[in-house]
Amino acid sequence: MALLGGNKSDSEHDEIQLFYGKGLSEQPLPRYEIPKDTMPAGAAYDFIMDELRDEGSARQNLATFVQTWMEPEAQQLIMNTLDKNAVDKSEYPQTAEIEERCVNIIANLWHADQRDEFIGTSTVGSSEACMLGGMAALFRWKKQARELGLDMSKRPNLVISSAYQVVWEKFGVYWDVELREVPVTKECLALDPEKAIELIDDYTICVVGIMGLTYTGRYDDIKALDAAITTYNETSKVKVYIHVDAASGGLYTPFMEPDLEWDFRLDNVKSINTSGHKYGLVYPGVGWVLWKDKTWLPEELIFKVSYLGGDMPTMAINFSRPASLIVAQYYLFLRLGFEGFRQVHARTQKAAKYITKEIEKLDLFEVINGADQLPVIAWTLKEDPGVAWDLYDLSDFLRMRGWQVPAYPMPADLEEMVVLRAVIKGDFSYDSALLFVRDLKASIEKLNKSHIIPNANNHPKTSHGFTH
Ligand SMILES: *Cc1c(COP(=O)(O)O)cnc(C)c1O
């Protein structure tokens, strides 16, 4: 990297080329004001790389669901298309066509009936996609509620597991929709369909099912939820439907458990979102949202934008963004095919299962999710483990060896339960799993020998590097 600092154009400057940083390394980098003068490209490059050097290695970041590795060919494609703006559909019609193909492929993986005329779009990620799914449900509910003469001054609500991702909290705040939370409990760590039904009323815009709770990697039972809603709708005035937040599972489950019914095969599932940058295997910056058929996306949310002489429909919230990650998603569909995705995910699950087995052998922990659904291991200290340290300490000690494994409390009603969570991804080899287990054991050994005064730790009992 430092080599770049010595390129020829820099030496054209009539100044002494110092060993590093071209004599500029004695100055602090600007923090508050744009610098007055220029700097050689190589020096700017080196300085910024230096700033980012100690941030932690993405490959050891087991806190995130987001991809941390792509093939060189995919990276090249991304570089080649960074200058294309995905929104300029008339300017880049083939890029628009590639986006459409991705929507078709995902619709097919989710069993949309082609005759139903599904509709969908790419987004920046699941946050934008969830927002769109929620907005469509809200607008649809409003129309229904007005027709039925409901009191429109009352606040609508959305029913969801208490282990939701923060985007739904944002949705509630932005749109003044009450989140009615179905608490997760020790016995039922995913959405309890019966309890969900109890929370539904005429002001419910939709029930959100989650395919892959961020806390544990477990799936809500969407099929049971669908059946319960069918029964509810038989007698209800306002009909209720399901949006599935499949940020993590949407491009994992179809390959790993093709017979599991959670998608458009179910009557009441009308929209689904996923993050292409989670198990869709793309670098951060792409998500997808699809509706089973056009009628579930209210007309008001489809905008016709006249752009560069064309007329194009757009339903995403964001306007300009690089086409690169959409192209990269298509690359992965092409490159891996169904069988390739299955193999990559199966290997990831195998590594996660190996780690699970080793954690269980230590006889200190209780595994809450051992990669049975998403390849996520969530574990907690068993009762009376006979140690003086807690999971926050263990998380810190793993961090010293470069591993980012967050410790955090479970949501409301289960806050006393603290878990550690490791998300295993496609770039995690069996050897990485061996190294992780080695470091986990070494961290525990070190903790056992360190001078921790029991009950005297003052860790804040809040999320600790917990990312989604
Ligand atoms: C990650 C995640 C999100 C947010 O997705 P981004 O793609 O990061 O915006 C929403 N819901 C769930 C369940 C998630 O796991």
TrEMBL record:
Pfam families: Pyridoxal_deC (PF00282). Coiled coil: none annotated. The keyword Lyase applies. GO terms for biological process: L-glutamate catabolic process. Its cofactor is pyridoxal 5'-phosphate. It catalyses: L-glutamate + H(+) = 4-aminobutanoate + CO2. GO terms for molecular function: aromatic-L-amino-acid decarboxylase activity; glutamate decarboxylase activity; pyridoxal phosphate binding. GO terms for cellular component: cytosol. Keywords: Decarboxylase, Lyase, Pyridoxal phosphate. The modification N6-(pyridoxal phosphate)lysine is found at K278. The keyword S-adenosyl-L-methionine does not apply. Its EC number is 4.1.1.15. InterPro entries: Glutamate_decarboxylase, PyrdxlP-dep_de-COase, PyrdxlP-dep_Trfase, PyrdxlP-dep_Trfase_major. Belongs to the group II decarboxylase family. This is Glutamate decarboxylase.
